[in-house]
Amino acid sequence: MKVKFISWLGSGLIASTSMFPLMAQAQSNSVTLLPPALAEIELSASQQTKLEAVKKETQSQLQTILSSSQQDQLKNSLSQGNDMRSAVQSLNLSFRQRRQMKNIMQTMQSEVGNILTPEQKQQIQQKAQSSQN
Fold first, then answer.
1. d(Cα 116, Cα 88) in Å, to the nearest integer?
2. I want to staple 10 with a disulfide (CB 3.0 to 4.6 A). Which of 14, 19, 72, 105 is the partner?
3. Which residues pair with 27 in a beta bridge?
C-alpha cells in the first residue's frame, strides 16, 4: 500500500506511471504543488499548517532550479489549465534540472506522507482506486 501511495504522491511528475499526475494551479505569483486529493480528505489544522510549509519549501526549491523564463512559462502553462506534468514537460529542462526536479518532488512526497495518518492514506488510496473504475 505504501508503494502505491508514494508513487501517487509525486514520483509521477516526471515518470509516466503515477496513478494521478500532480496538479498545480496558478495562484497570483505562485504555484500550488500539492496533490489534489488532499482537498478531498479532512485535515487537522496542524496538518494544514505542515502541508503549507511543505508547499512553500517546494516552491522555493523549484525557483532555484528554474530560470525566470522557465518560471514564467510554467506559470502561464498552469494558468491555462494544463496539469503539472504537461507544464513541466513543456519547459525543455536540462538533464540536471530534471534530476533536481525529481529529487525535490521525492522529498515533497515523503514529507506529505509523513504528515498524513494511515487512515488518510487509505482514504486517498480508495479514492484513487474508485476513480480508476
1. 26
2. 105
3. 30
